[in-house]
Amino acid sequence: MLIVHHLGKSQSERIVWLCEELGLPYELKHTARDPVTMLAPAEYKALHPIGSAPVIVDGDLVLAESGAIVEYISGKYGNGRLVLAAQHPNFADFLYWFHFANGTLQAHLGRLMILNRLKLADDHPILTAARARVDRAFDLVEARTREAEYLAGQDFTTADIMMGFSLTTMRYFQPYDLKRCPSIIAYLSRIGARPAYRRAMEKGDPGMTLLLD
């Protein structure tokens, strides 16, 4: 059986959500963050050389990196569900937003989080530039969610699963006020109402307030 090693408040929520959407049997092994450092404990870091979440075990395979895991599970067990085929008119949109999640939005939020921890002056040019990049990324998502029900168009896909964490739980680590992004809030209401999302979050992070607005 597929084993999902879930670290609380982490990108591994994407994998739990995907398994719930696909109705896959899986074993969830939950690990809590260190309450002081908010880092993964040693036993989680020992699962894979990169030492970060998520990690899955599928037979003899141990795989990390959330995007790779989502593609692996979708390709091996999804039977074409939650992805768009190359012939689909929105295939390029699907690819773009799937990779935008970690390639742009998550990366910019992570850099801003680190810069904020350096306690730079509020008007420091590097900090100002980092904030501007994050704003531009959110502006792009706002524009897309204004024109389409889901990121790839009318179909809910793994691109939405990838983006979900960066728009929600990641804001526990790098706060971002979504009041300037009403279309994103409406979009988060749509994906947040999905039964599979609710099941995944309750299983992975029970009791955690979901940052859907």
Structural overview:
With 213 residues, the protein is of the alpha+beta class. 50% of the residues lie in helices and 9% in strands. A four-stranded mixed sheet has the order 2-1-3-4, with helices on one face. Strand 3 (55-58) and strand 4 form a beta hairpin. Helix 5 (125-147) packs across helix 7. The model has no long low-confidence stretch (mean pLDDT 94).
Strand content: 5-15%
> Oligomeric state of the chains?
single chain
**What is the average of the pLDDT values?**
94
Q: Major sheet: size, sense and barrel closure?
A: 4 strands, mixed
Give the spatial strand order of the biggest sheet.
2-1-3-4
Identify the overall geometry: globular
Order of helices and strands: EHEHEEHHHHHH
Gap from first CA to last CA? 35 Å
Structural class call reads alpha+beta
Number of helices: 8
The tally of strands reads: 4
Instruction: Give helix % range.
Output: 40-55%
Please give the radius of gyration in angstroms. Answer: 17 Å
**Weakly predicted, low-confidence segments:** none
Quickly describe the structure:
The protein is α+β, with helices and mostly antiparallel strands. The protein contains eight helices and four strands.
